[in-house]
């Protein structure tokens, strides 16, 4: 092993000499000086040799090796400096990450004023003289270019606005009133584009309607972007607007007591081609009245608040039951929180906030308790309760001589023979002779005439109830009253 002379002439191994060098010292003491012939660097307060260092060779001879000492010294100091530099870099890296997180936390933070936020529900909390406004934490982008708002309650005036605003928009102004903002207002159907005076744009929106807003990300050019608005999934119109430096943030405004909406910042909206395909299969035109109920093909979903008995979601068919189409069915897809699902028949002008069966001119079978309600809020025990997957049915057994005056004018129904599908309830189109009451006058008016309404569960009849047909006929009516309820409807299960 090569050796080096100590100050007293003793030859020491280089490894031992190297171990005598200090491995670490305070940063302020790292001052270096040149001494002796070897011109090596010496930390202040550390003694170095003033003579040449010799290294033993393999043949036993020694020679001066100034380069060897300088190399060992440089390595030692380099290792120390690298360790310190790495430590400081790590500290700076952690500090930088912390600063970035703090900046992002401030930037991506939702802002709202005079509103109460409960999950995805926003409620107005002002005094109707002041605007309440909500601004989402993140702007619309290419990956998230659309959002929707469902009107849960229009309140006193229904002054609900949906649109896009800059990040630091003033929260005491409706979206669309100030520059660089745009919004579609539900109460008047007008578009407000950076101006407190709006322009006629689309239809008014009411309770249960969905207002959507999005951007065509592929059309942005030179600081401009195309913004579009939708109502119940159908595009109302679009306009090109300038983009703020920080982007355009989803915003909702309210201005009267009782207003409430449900916000969906992750909503999706397809292309025009997808929409046209959906419209073909949508069945929405089969419904004359929809309150707090969303239609998606044959699926009905409750979108009401579900907090009181007045928050009924009601769906009423466009056409009444007739001798050509006298039966319909509902499958419980999701019972929701309480399974307050009702299936029955009601007059055309049935109150929208009353469950089927609760008011005059209606009869219904309720899934949650298995009771039948006939024009009263008090039900009678009728059949078993219904759960997820069960199919509830309702129909009319008309007298043989029963003919509606308006039946021939209905073009929406096929005149084909009525025949049951496999596994379905038998076709009870007419009453049997023993079911018909004796003494019926065939000349009496059909309005007000009695018929037999029957209900089924999973294809089996569970009971009947004699009722009087209201003027205009009985319309298939479905009611829901708790969050999450979904049903699949078949208005023509017996058609061929």
TrEMBL record:
CDD domains registered for this protein in UniProt: SPRYD3
Membrane-crossing segments per the record: none
InterPro entries reported in the protein's UniProt record: B30.2/SPRY, B30.2/SPRY_sf, ConA-like_dom_sf, SPRY_dom, SPRYD3_SPRY, Ubq-SigPath_Reg
Domain B30.2/SPRY per the UniProt entry, residue ranges: 83-270, 262-496
Alphabetical list of Pfam families matching this protein: SPRY (PF00622)
Protein name: SPRY domain containing 3
Upper lineage: Eukaryota, Metazoa, Chordata, Craniata, Vertebrata
């Amino acid at each position: 092993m090569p050796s080096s002379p100590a100050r007293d002439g003793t030859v020491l191994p280089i490894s031992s000499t190297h171990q005598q060098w200090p491995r670490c010292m305070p940063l302020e003491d790292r001052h270096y000086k040149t001494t002796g012939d070897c011109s090596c660097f010496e930390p202040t307060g550390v003694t170095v040799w003033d003579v040449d260092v010799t290294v033993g060779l393999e043949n036993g001879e020694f020679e001066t090796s100034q380069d060897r000492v300088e190399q060992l010294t440089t390595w030692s100091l380099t290792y120390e400096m690298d360790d310190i530099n790495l430590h400081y870099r790590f500290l700076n890296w952690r500090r930088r990450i912390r600063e970035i997180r703090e900046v992002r936390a401030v930037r991506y933070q939702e802002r709202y004023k005079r509103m109460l936020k409960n999950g995805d529900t926003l409620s107005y909390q002002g005094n109707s003289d002041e605007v309440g406004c909500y601004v989402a934490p993140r702007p619309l982008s290419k990956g998230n270019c659309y959002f929707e708002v469902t009107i849960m309650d229009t309140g006193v005036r229904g002054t609900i606005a949906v649109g896009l605003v800059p990040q630091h928009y003033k929260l005491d102004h409706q979206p669309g009133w100030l520059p660089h903002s745009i919004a579609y207002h539900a109460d008047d159907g007008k578009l407000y584009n950076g101006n407190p005076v709006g322009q006629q744009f689309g239809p008014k929106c009411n309770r249960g309607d969905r207002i959507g807003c999005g951007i065509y990300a592929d059309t942005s050019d030179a600081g401009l972007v195309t913004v579009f608005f939708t109502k119940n999934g159908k595009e109302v119109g679009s306009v090109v607007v300038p983009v703020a430096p920080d982007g355009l943030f989803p915003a909702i405004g309210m201005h009267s007591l009782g207003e409430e909406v449900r916000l969906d910042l992750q909503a999706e909206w397809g292309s025009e081609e997808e929409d046209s395909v959906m419209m073909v299969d949508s069945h929405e035109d089969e419904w004359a009245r929809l309150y707090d109920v969303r239609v998606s093909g044959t699926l009905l979903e409750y979108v009401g608040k579900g907090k009181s008995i007045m928050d009924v979601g009601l769906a009423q068919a466009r056409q009444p039951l007739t001798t050509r189409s006298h039966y319909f069915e509902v499958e419980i897809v999701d019972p929701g929180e309480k399974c307050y699902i009702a299936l029955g028949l009601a007059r055309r002008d049935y109150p929208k906030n009353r469950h089927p069966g609760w008011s005059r001119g209606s009869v219904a079978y309720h899934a949650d308790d298995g009771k039948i309600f006939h024009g009263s809020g008090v039900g009678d025990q009728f059949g078993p309760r219904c759960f997820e997957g069960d199919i509830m049915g309702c129909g009319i057994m008309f007298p043989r001589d029963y003919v509606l005056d308006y039946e021939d004018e209905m073009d929406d129904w096929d005149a084909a023979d009525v025949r049951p599908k496999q596994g379905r309830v038998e076709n009870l189109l007419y009453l049997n002779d023993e079911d018909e009451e004796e003494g019926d006058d065939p000349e009496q008016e059909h309005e007000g005439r009695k018929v037999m309404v029957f209900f089924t569960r999973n294809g089996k009849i569970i009971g009947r109830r004699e009722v009087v047909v209201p003027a205009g006929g009985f319309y298939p009516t479905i009611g829901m009253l708790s969050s999450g309820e979904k049903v699949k409807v078949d208005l023509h299960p017996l058609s061929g």
